[in-house]
Design brief:
The protein is of the alpha/beta class. It has helices spanning 9-17, 20-27, 38-53, 111-128, 153-172, 182-186; strands at residues 7-8, 64-75, 80-90, 95-101, 134-139, 145-150. The chain has a single domain, classed as Lambda Exonuclease, Chain A (Alpha-Beta Complex), CATH 3.90.320.10.
């Protein structure tokens, strides 16, 4: 039996897209070969560029008074790690994550992206001993549109449940049910291995 110690906030996205990603990636150790995918590489390039260009830029219009760039945090309590593009500090001493997404804003917030930000919020709260009640996404392909996300206590509790579900797959090595959305299967890295 495997004994996984930590998961990443990005693995929460994978799990919410389809729980079988966790099984294939971590239990069977089958790579997605993300480095070969154009959008993944382009997104990484954008992140690196933003880290350099926006180094000293403070978003004062949203009340930001300070920020840290490219912040890696871990939680021994949640067995979670994550790397945030920015951790913002506000006038009331609360904090928030800000993440650049190489994506177009489609008039809705996807559950995967929200839960990644909730996971970041949990990491920030534990490491900085502060309150986090919002997060921000910058949609690069929508002219750097900035969107605020509300983070509630219920969101945090749901995210902890997701983390526990992921550890069940990892530590019990069981094959979970796949996504119910067959459209996701069409572009899936594991579609030749998986049966719906």
């Amino acid at each position: 039996m495997n004994n996984f110690v930590y998961i990443t906030a990005s693995e929460i996205i994978e799990y919410l897209y389809c729980p079988r990603f966790i099984y294939y990636m971590n239990v069977l150790d089958i790579s997605q070969h993300e480095h070969e995918r154009y959008l993944v590489n382009k997104g990484r390039d954008i992140h690196e560029l933003k880290m350099v260009r926006n180094k000293d830029y403070l978003r004062k219009t949203i009340g930001c008074v300070d920020k840290e760039i490219d912040v890696y945090l871990s939680s021994d309590k949640l067995h979670l790690v994550g790397r945030m593009d920015e951790v913002l500090t506000f006038e009331d001493n609360t904090k928030a994550s800000l993440d650049y997404k190489f994506a177009v804003y489609e008039e809705k917030l996807f559950k995967t992206l929200k839960n990644q930000q909730v996971a970041y919020s949990l990491l920030i709260e534990e490491n900085y001993n502060c309150s986090v009640n919002k997060a921000f996404l910058v949609y690069v392909r929508s002219k750097n549109l900035l969107k605020e996300i509300e983070i509630t206590q219920k969101d945090k509790e749901n995210c902890i449940t997701i983390i526990n579900d992921i550890f069940d797959i990892l530590n019990k090595c069981y094959f979970p049910n796949g996504t119910k959305n067959n459209l996701k299967c069409q572009d899936c890295t594991y579609k030749n291995l998986c049966f719906s």
